[in-house]
Each structure stands twice: as structure tokens, then as C-alpha cells.
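User: Can you recover a sequence for this backbone? Please restate the input before giving your answer.

Assistant: Of course. Working from this structure:
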């Protein structure tokens, strides 16, 4: 079970494939498992690092306050421990917001950036949703059916939820995955990070070419959010390197487009990062 010491904690990681490095950043619910549907395809073209952040999965879970600053510093230290100077960074959901935070603080270490189903600042509808999740987690636990119901409603499209992989099998999978990967206090800290984040200023410090993706049925982090928020379209329009960045809407997909429509999502990511690599190879 590969682990490395990162800023005083043991971080679990997996490496698959060969080529330019890609660091995949987990969201608020899953650890490295969140990329299970896309890593096999990615690994055909890149050397992919999947990991459990501090507080998640098989990594250490110290009692502390968890913030984007803590997780971003761990990402840089993880790459140091693995001898990786520079990598593409791919983040979905909260992982995409964290990827922006990381890319703004370590611009020289990011070759290409992918932000999927994410925000730079949550609008009130998203903030209220995260407050509901905190309340459900506090009342019933992170592996509860009550929390899983609401997460499923916000994660995928209606067609997926009514399809062969949705319904009760999806609810059970979300319950088991969440229970296995994150405890209540850490999950609530993650929700707080999403409620409090304001990365408008960060966008001006992200120099890497960036792909911004959003599912066409994303109700949690839609492309266009309320006036107080900054969704995918805002992110794309306010990047300092906007001329080398792209905005893609994934059809027939909700917030979790990597699960809802993995083929289209994976193709968009692979095609973009291959173009970036051909222009300025990652190391």
C-alpha cells in the first residue's frame, strides 16, 4: 500500500500509466476512488497520480481544521516526495476548486489545468445546499441514507438516476463510499471551505492553459450561477490565459459528469491535455 510522508502525515497514492504526469484531485466525498471511471482511459496517455487527501480514505486523518490551504500545501509536498517537478492537474467538483487554488499558488508547477463541475465562488443556492449537507452529516452521519439521497439528487442527471446504474444501487454505492472515505468533521470542513471560498482573485494568478467543463444538467455548480457566484463560464472568462483555455459543456450529464458521462468527459480532458503537452511538454 504506497504511502509517503507529506507535511507530517502519511498520504496514500496510486500511479498508473506512462507519459506526462497528471495529478487528479478528489472532491468532498471521495478520495482517489472518485476517478475510478476515468483513470483507466487517462492512464493510456498519461502517468496518472490518484491520491487520498489528508483526512480522506487510506491517508492519515488527524484531528485539525481542514482548508484549501492545507490540502494545496499537501499536493505540492506530495509531488515533491514523488520527484515530480511539474504536472497537469485535473480536479472535479471540490477538487476543481482546490485545483484552482493550487494552480494560483504554484503556477510554475502546473502544465495544464482541468476544472470540472466546479466554482470559484459559491452562490447562495450552493451555500445553502452545503449547509443542508452539513446538517444531514451531523444528524445522521456521512454514510447515511439521508445524506446519500440528497447527494445523488445533486450529483447526476435524472436519466442516470432512473437508469440501470442509478436508483438504489447508486444510493448504496454513495453511502458505502462516503462512509469509507470521510468522517463527519472533515466532510463539514470541506463544506465550509466551499461555502467560504472566494477565488476570484486566484483566477488572475492561474497561468496554465485551462479546460473548464460542466454538465448540461448540473444543478449544484451550473455554468451560470447566481450574481453572487462564479461558475464555470465565469472561470473561463476571467482566466488570465483565457486565449489558451477552453470551455466545454458535457451533454447528458449532471454535476458528476465524470461518472454521468465518463466517455465524453474523458475524451475532452485527454484531447485538451495532449494538446497542452504537445505545445509545452510536462515534466
Amino acid at each position: 500500500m504506497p504511502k509517503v510522508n507529506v507535511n507530517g502525515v502519511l498520504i496514500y497514492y496510486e500511479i498508473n500509466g506512462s507519459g506526462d504526469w497528471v495529478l487528479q484531485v478528489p472532491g468532498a466525498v471521495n478520495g482517489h476512488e472518485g476517478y475510478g471511471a476515468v483513470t483507466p482511459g487517462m492512464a493510456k496517455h498519461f502517468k496518472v497520480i490518484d491520491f487520498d487527501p489528508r483526512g480522506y480514505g487510506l491517508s492519515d486523518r488527524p484531528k485539525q481544521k481542514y482548508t484549501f490551504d492545507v490540502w494545496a500545501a499537501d499536493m505540492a509536498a506530495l509531488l515533491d516526495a514523488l520527484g515530480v517537478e511539474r504536472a497537469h492537474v485535473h480536479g472535479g467538483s471540490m477538487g476543481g476548486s482546490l485545483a484552482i487554488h493550487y494552480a494560483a499558488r504554484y503556477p510554475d508547477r502546473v502544465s495544464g489545468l482541468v476544472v470540472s463541475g466546479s466554482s470559484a465562488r459559491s452562490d447562495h443556492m450552493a451555500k445553502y445546499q452545503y449547509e443542508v449537507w452539513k446538517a444531514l452529516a451531523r444528524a445522521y452521519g456521512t454514510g447515511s441514507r439521508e445524506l446519500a439521497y440528497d447527494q445523488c439528487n445533486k450529483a447526476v442527471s435524472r436519466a442516470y438516476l432512473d437508469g440501470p446504474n442509478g436508483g438504489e444501487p447508486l444510493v448504496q454505492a454513495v453511502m458505502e463510499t462516503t462512509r469509507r472515505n470521510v468522517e463527519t468533521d472533515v466532510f463539514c470542513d470541506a463544506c465550509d471551505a466551499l461555502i467560504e471560498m472566494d477565488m476570484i482573485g486566484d483566477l488572475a494568478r492561474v497561468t496554465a492553459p485551462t479546460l473548464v467543463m460542466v454538465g448540461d444538467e448540473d444543478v449544484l455548480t451550473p455554468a451560470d450561477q447566481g450574481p453572487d457566484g462564479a461558475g464555470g463560464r465565469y472561470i473561463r472568462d476571467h482566466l488570465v490565459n483565457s486565449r489558451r483555455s477552453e470551455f466545454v459543456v458535457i451533454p447528458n450529464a449532471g454535476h458528476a459528469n465524470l461518472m454521468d458521462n465518463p466517455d465524453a468527459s474523458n475524451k475532452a480532458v485527454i484531447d485538451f491535455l495532449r494538446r497542452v503537452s504537445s505545445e509545452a511538454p510536462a515534466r
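That completes the design. Residues 262-279 form the longest helix (18 residues).
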